[in-house]
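Hi L., both proteins are below.
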Amino acid sequence: MPLCLAEPVVKIHCPDFDLAQTLDCGQCFRWEMLEDGSFSGIAFGKYCRVSQEGDTISFFDITPEDFNALWRSYFDLDRDYGALKERLSQNPILAEAARFAPGIRILHQDHWEALCSFILSQNNNIKRIKGLVRRLCEQFGEPVEGGYAFPSAHRLAELSPDDLGPVRCGFRAKYLVDAARKVASGQINLTQVETMDVETARETLMQIHGVGPKVAECALLYGFGRMKCCPMDVWMKKCVTTLYPQGLPACTQGIEGIAQQYLFHYSRCHPQLFGQK
């Protein structure tokens, strides 16, 4: 993928990528659209502002070294999504879902942040999840350029559920604290989870109170890059029950998580598929 530098902007040409579709499809919660149409966010403790014009993506106030060390992988820019969409389009429903939001990519987020974000996502909508994550970072994260880093497991392990009162995360507070204590103590080693087979990784994450199959699948897909993981939220359960009662088609094998993202976004934007207005 070609990269050019016109200080202080790193620009890349990247087809099959849409910032708005990628950053507002329910897989991450720390990006905001600015008045000029660009997006700003913090990942791995680093601030980024990024904009798009056609197939050109511009990253502001970063060096090529920073881009290659972090943002290239974070946005999954080296994966050929055009080829993946062609493969998935063997199925007419997936073909339509991919045409609806052809620019979605799966972000490679921080393990710990993704795990906590999807613990907070339970019984919630995207707007409220963003508020919870923002308040958690403001209250307990380290100040960085552009805002606050996501608080570490060690920082949250020092707290009680009551200490999380200002975050207003309700019953989820005890789950966050349990996750933090198990990760900080080494009982659950997220670096080891990265190399486990998917079944063992899922079972390991589910040792945390409040982490069931859906939260574990989300963490593995969005935080560990496990593309075969397929989170089953309310929309995906409706989608599979209505459109794929025999299970996802063979063309999704090994990339079920990517297929899921197209289907999730399409289903959420087309509730009439399921008899809803």
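That was the first. Here is the second:
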Amino acid sequence: MSITITSTVIDISPAIRERIESRFEKLSRRQVDLIAPHVIINKEGLKYQVEATAGVRHDTLFAKAEDDNLYAAIKDLGQKLERQLNRYADKPLAQRAVAAGAAGAVLAGELGDESDDEFDEEFDHEFDEEE
């Protein structure tokens, strides 16, 4: 996976690059393809700000973390992206469960109109009067 890492305030050392790549390797365990991941490192006062964007099918993940320690900010960023990716990966399962529940309710007749029962009673009553 090719990760684009940019920074205007520090030089990207091999150790920083390796830490970021290891965090993204953990994300790849979910077996969701990350499209063009991009990490931006800035420094605001004494704090490092790390932002990341990564495309996934039909969506984009974005996270931002801030800390005095650059490596701690990278760790927080990875955790935020991991939570988003877990939510994204589990979303189809949740949608299928909701759809299956609704389909089961329709088959069981739980979502039918009660007005149909009233109509049947009125129709039966009119039929009885004609005899």
